[in-house]
Specification:
The chain has about 130 residues and is mainly α. About 80% of the residues lie in helices and about 10% in strands.
Length: about 130
């Protein structure tokens, strides 16, 4: 913080930029958050991809687990579960391969749903 000292007709000011920066940082924590419209637009855009990404991850994991289970059945219990292992493995490949198309479809639907709000906000920001 700056100190102002009066010595006759001369003034001395001690100023610490580092201290002032720390004060400003602490002060910002307690000030009410300003609504940053650009940040809101970024968040809205990201939110259109989240449901599709979550579903794609789930499909990828389930498909991988099924494929691994099928491979285990073939390699470990080949005499008893060979055919079942092939069936389970092929189902796993099918489920895992559906991850990206499901992601694209869900993201497209979400973007159509949010398009009006995002376009209105982007118009407001660009003016």
């Amino acid at each position: 913080m700056s100190e102002l000292q009066n010595e006759g007709s001369n003034f001395n000011v001690d100023y610490s930029a580092k201290q002032q920066q720390e004060i400003d940082g602490i002060r910002k924590k307690y000030l009410p958050k300003e609504e940053d419209k650009m940040e809101l637009l970024r968040q809205m855009d990201k939110s259109t991809e989240k449901p599709g990404a979550a579903m794609a991850i789930v499909l990828g994991i389930v498909g991988s687990l099924l494929l691994g289970t099928g491979m285990s059945c073939i390699m470990v219990w080949a005499d008893k579960l060979f055919v079942l292992g092939i069936i389970v493995g092929v189902i796993g490949i099918g489920v895992a391969s559906m991850a990206y198309p499901v992601y694209r479809k869900m993201t497209k639907k979400q973007r159509e749903k949010m398009a009006e709000q995002i376009l209105a906000l982007s118009e407001e920001i660009s003016l």
